[in-house]
Task: inverse folding
């Protein structure tokens, strides 16, 4: 099952908002096939794993390990449960049930009624953690929200009068990798004014996320990178709806602004978003409880004064060191769990 997780994670940044799915086929205690869902709209993991098997006669004695319940619906591809039945697989071992209402247990029922032995719930928590974006998004209320910031050793995000580089080049490169893995990157009005960010992937290979910014009273204008029309960009505001080729402005009510924003992103098929600042925006997400994970760099730099970093209570899940910068991953225990 751990091998299916490894395979599944190769789809990160390519399959969203679909889940990350890997499949391993074993016969006579030997792996005879492997596959994963490689790209949104393309074949599912099980089909790719079956295709990779050279001697199909072995499938009649084989066990398929898959981290998500095989689908039972006709989506962009035919149902994987039918395919597993058709090739004569004997046993299927699954980590997580698919909470997509189109599937939701029907894949498992189909397999069992065809006489296939099915085991469910193997390494269930690890499977849920791997697909935390999908399991959050499929409820259609919100993408998976990741807060990210870098703070100095004395707890500041930057000086008050312009962009400040606090983290080292390895940490900054890691952020570009993250942008390539998530569907959208979001910033607030002040950050657009002060940093004039591009919010694209430069220091890593991969696709660019959708750029999202908040500009409640539409005060941003002029020669700003986010307004350059080079990439799909969403602007959430209180004033107007408007659509041009790359720019979509969305008017939201003042009350519950962030909840509306997240629901709108989810409806647009955005399964995850990284909030990159600034302080006010991060604090707004924290105060509204609208976050699932935080990734915080603590650096060796001392700033002595400036904009204070947000305070956040979360459950530490991982610690990394990037050439002196300490990276802490927190998860929000209060966010709804599956
Ligand atoms: C599987 N194996 O590898 C994946 C599954 O639009 P479609 O046809 O690609 O279907 C997407 C849905 O199928 C997705 O929301 C999830 O419920 C399931 N994904 N199922 O058996 C896979 N990626
Ligand atoms: Zn499928």
Result:
């Amino acid at each position: 099952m751990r091998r299916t997780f490894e395979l599944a994670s190769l789809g990160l940044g390519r399959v969203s908002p679909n889940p990350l799915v890997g499949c391993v086929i074993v016969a006579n205690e030997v792996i005879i096939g492997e596959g994963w869902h490689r790209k949104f709209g393309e074949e599912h993991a099980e089909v790719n794993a079956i295709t990779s098997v050279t001697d199909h006669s072995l499938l009649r004695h084989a066990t398929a390990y898959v981290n998500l319940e095989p689908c039972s619906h006709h989506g962009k591809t035919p149902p994987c449960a039918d395919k597993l039945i058709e090739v004569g697989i004997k046993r299927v071992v699954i980590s997580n049930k698919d909470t997509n209402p189109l599937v939701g247990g029907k894949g498992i029922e189909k397999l069992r009624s065809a006489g296939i032995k099915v085991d469910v719930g193997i390494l269930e928590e690890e499977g849920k953690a791997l697909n935390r974006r999908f399991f959050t998004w499929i409820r259609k209320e919100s993408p998976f929200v990741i807060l990210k910031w870098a703070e100095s050793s004395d707890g500041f995000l930057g000086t008050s009068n312009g962009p400040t580089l606090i983290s080292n080049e390895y940490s900054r490169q890691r952020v570009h990798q993250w942008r390539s893995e998530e569907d959208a990157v979001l910033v607030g009005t002040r950050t657009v004014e002060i940093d004039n960010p591009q919010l694209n992937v430069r220091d890593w290979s991969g696709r660019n996320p959708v750029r999202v910014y908040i500009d409640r009273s539409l005060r941003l204008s002029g020669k700003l990178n986010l307004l350059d029309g080079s990439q799909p960009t969403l602007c959430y505001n209180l004033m107007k709806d408007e659509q041009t080729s790359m720019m979509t402005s969305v008017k939201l009510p003042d009350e519950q602004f962030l909840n509306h924003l997240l629901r709108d992103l989810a409806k647009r098929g955005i399964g995850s978003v990284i909030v990159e600042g600034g302080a006010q925006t991060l604090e707004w997400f924290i105060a509204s409880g609208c976050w699932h994970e935080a990734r915080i760099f603590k650096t060796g730099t001392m700033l002595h004064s400036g904009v204070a970093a947000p305070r956040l209570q979360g459950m530490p899940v991982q610690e990394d060191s990037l050439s002196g910068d300490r990276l802490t991953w927190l998860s929000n225990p209060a966010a709804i769990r599956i």
Notes: Residues 44, 70-71, 80 surround zinc ion (ligand 2) (CB under 6 Å).
